[in-house]
Amino acid sequence: MMRVLGRVTSINVRKVLWGLGELGLAYERDDWGLPLRDPNVPEFLALNPNGQVPVLLDGDFVLWESNAILNYLADKDGSGHLLPADPQLRARAQQWLGWQSSELGPSWSYAVQAMIRKTPGYDDPARIGDAMTKWTGKMEILEGHLEQGEAFVAGDQFTIADIALGLSVHRWFSMPLERKAFPVVGDYYERLKQRPEGARWMTTQTP
């Protein structure tokens, strides 16, 4: 049985757990990551030298980085359920999966540390405002794309990109600040919450 090392309060761990649930794959999960269990110990660093969660163990195979794990799970399943076989649709899903990691996620960093995690030292109002401006700009890109009328970011099929983006927009709607309205993204968010695994992992307790 596969094992996932990571705490459910991590957005990247929840990506993997949502993917496993969508595919109906059995797994066990071990709590790792602060404040529950420090990953910066030899036992964990032997699996992921970055000291970050999640880590997937599939027999003797070890894999880290949440997007790589989502790709692996989709290919392991082999049904095309979360990643289309068509090369153009597959590439579009990969495009938005990469965008979430390289563009959307970094934009919110300071604001999330300040307003959600309450991390000491992240209390500069100017930097919070700057992060929110950058984050809003990225959300405008997503809104514009979804305005084209497709149900999901890669087309009519739900893919691994929607898992990453669903958790991201959940974080946006959970911020305790006044935010720009994005009605099309809001509809997309509600659509994802209709999925059992979406409802399970997009909770107000874990933004």
From TrEMBL:
It comes from the Bacteria. One of its GO terms (molecular function) is transferase activity. Keywords: Transferase. The keyword Kinase does not apply. InterPro entries: Glutathione-S-Trfase_C-like (IPR010987), Glutathione-S-Trfase_C_sf (IPR036282), Glutathione_S-Trfase (IPR040079), Glutathione_S-Trfase_N (IPR004045), Thioredoxin-like_sf (IPR036249). Residues 1-81 form the GST N-terminal domain. SUPFAM superfamilies: GST C-terminal domain-like, Thioredoxin-like. Residues 86-207 form the GST C-terminal domain. Belongs to the GST superfamily. This is Glutathione S-transferase. It comes from Devosia epidermidihirudinis. The lineage of its organism: Bacteria, Pseudomonadati, Pseudomonadota, Alphaproteobacteria, Hyphomicrobiales.
